[in-house]
Structure to design on (514 residues):
């Protein structure tokens, strides 16, 4: 019986996390258009429902009913598989993110932990799955049989490899402080008030993480793979209807993941700002902090122009990686001096 | 009851993954399209990672995914896209000698594997690090690397630095 209950718990948690993530992704597209609209002094979507709140659903219906084109010169199997790889990788990263502490089901003594998997290698899992997700973008551009698509995917490959290095080195600083790859452990060590958050101990790593994270998810100012002005949409130029929607959803899901990892590593995860406010459930704190990051991602898109391709590569290799290495050395030195 | 189900489940996963990895590695060397070969290589690496997970070594499994399936195959795909291999193949690339040498090496490795499996009975001796301790804890792996195996670790890092510097120098010479 215990086994059956456990199975039910796992399935319910998977469904809830998946549905929640999809709802967040749908309304993130709405939020992005609204915020960008206000930044550019226009209204944004406001026809579908109050404040345009039904816009994501009308977009989904539109994507479903559009004609699904597969170009004749494309590599058909890879062309169909690429968006699937992207979305599967973007969603599966969420398996290790801790959304909150545990609670006991009312009326029973069954403890529900608010995370799907609490593995010893949590942070490495995130990196591994994220690097698999890059195959989606690269194969999508290559299989289209289109020169803009190929250029986009080549740029994506170069950019992601470069920025993944800096991202990885930047995070090692946090790992030195928390002495664990387990995400729940990292969150637990940041408990007891906002002054214990890693953002105060690793400010350089935090800034590096945000910059490299933006490059990882191909957002402005690093959206080289799909630079509209030069590549006419880049890697997804030949994609239409639901396949394009899958790429789009994968990008936004990846954005949510980047935010969630930033919350977990630097902002104390589901821990409250001050211990006196711990009567508010952890998941509310988690969502509130996540919202700050998501808003930041949208806000900076409306603010910064796109970099040139060679500037991006130079910035990554000559500035970010040395900075990350210095941060790592200084952190290691201080930790070893403190004993 | 519960343990039985777990064992059966593990066996099913093992059989599925093992056969998939064999088929995928056969497809790697038989596909004409190099990108397809690279993709089947990713599939092979992922299957091997699952095999590591079944052996309770999470750390090795995820390193397999990050380094091999992620970074190395990504580099291979990147290089394949830059080179126009199809044109080279059409212009008649002779592969006879490399096929012979590669075949001989493969047979040699096969004998090596068979010998090591048949000749030695795989019973390890008990040390202070039990499989549970090593697998469940990245710390244990790190401790071993920086104490008992420090010297090989340092040699490998020097070798890697030399290789990186060499690559930079070679690419600078050409321009």
């Amino acid at each position: 019986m215990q086994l059956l209950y456990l199975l039910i718990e796992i399935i319910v948690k998977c469904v809830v996390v998946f549905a929640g993530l999809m709802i967040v992704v749908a309304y993130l597209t709405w939020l992005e258009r609204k915020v960008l609209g206000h930044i550019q002094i226009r209204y944004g979507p406001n026809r579908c429902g109050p404040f345009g709140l039904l816009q994501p659903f009308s977009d989904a219906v539109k994507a479903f009913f559009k004609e699904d084109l597969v170009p004749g010169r494309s590599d058909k199997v890879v062309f169909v598989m690429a968006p699937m790889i992207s979305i599967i990788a973007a969603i599966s990263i969420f398996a290790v993110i801790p959304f909150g502490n545990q609670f006991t089901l009312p009326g029973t003594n069954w403890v529900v932990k608010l995370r799907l998997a609490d593995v010893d290698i949590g942070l490495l899992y995130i990196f591994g799955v994220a690097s698999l997700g890059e195959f989606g973008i690269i194969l999508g551009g290559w299989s289209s049989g289109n020169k803009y698509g190929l250029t986009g995917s080549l740029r994506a490959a170069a950019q992601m490899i470069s920025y993944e290095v800096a991202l990885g080195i930047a995070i090692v600083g946090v790992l030195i402080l928390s002495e664990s790859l387990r995400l729940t452990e990292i969150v637990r060590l940041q408990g007891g008030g906002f002054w214990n958050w890693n953002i105060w101990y690793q400010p350089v790593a935090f800034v590096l993480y945000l910059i490299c994270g933006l490059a990882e998810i191909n957002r402005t100012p690093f959206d080289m793979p799909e630079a509209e002005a030069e590549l006419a949409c880049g890697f997804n130029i030949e994609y239409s209807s639901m396949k394009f929607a899958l790429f789009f959803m994968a990008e936004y899901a990846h954005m949510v993941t980047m935010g969630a990892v930033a919350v977990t590593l630097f902002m104390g995860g589901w821990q409250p700002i001050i211990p006196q406010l711990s009567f508010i459930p952890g998941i509310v704190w988690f969502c509130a902090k996540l919202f700050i990051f998501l808003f930041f991602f949208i806000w900076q898109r409306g603010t910064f122009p796109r970099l040139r391709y060679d500037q991006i590569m130079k910035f990554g290799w000559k500035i970010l990686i040395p900075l990350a290495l210095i941060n790592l050395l200084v952190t290691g030195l201080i930790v070893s001096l403190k004993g | 009851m519960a343990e039985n189900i777990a064992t059966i489940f593990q066996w099913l996963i093992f059989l599925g993954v093992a056969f998939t990895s064999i088929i995928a590695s056969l497809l790697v060397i038989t596909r004409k399209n190099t990108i397809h070969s690279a993709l089947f290589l990713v599939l092979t690496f992922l299957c091997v990672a699952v095999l590591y997970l079944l052996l309770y070594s999470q750390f090795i499994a995820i390193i397999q995914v990050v380094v091999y399936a992620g970074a190395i195959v990504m580099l291979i795909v990147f290089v394949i896209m830059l080179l126009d291999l199809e044109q080279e193949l059409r212009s008649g690339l002779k592969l006879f000698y490399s096929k012979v040498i590669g075949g001989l090496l493969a047979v040699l490795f096969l004998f090596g594997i068979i010998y090591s499996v048949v000749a030695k009975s795989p019973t390890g001796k008990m040390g202070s690090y039990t499989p549970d301790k090593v697998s469940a804890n990245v710390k244990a792996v790190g401790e071993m690397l920086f104490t008992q195996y420090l010297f090989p670790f340092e040699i490998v890092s020097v070798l890697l630095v030399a290789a990186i510097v060499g690559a930079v120098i070679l690419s600078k010479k050409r321009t």
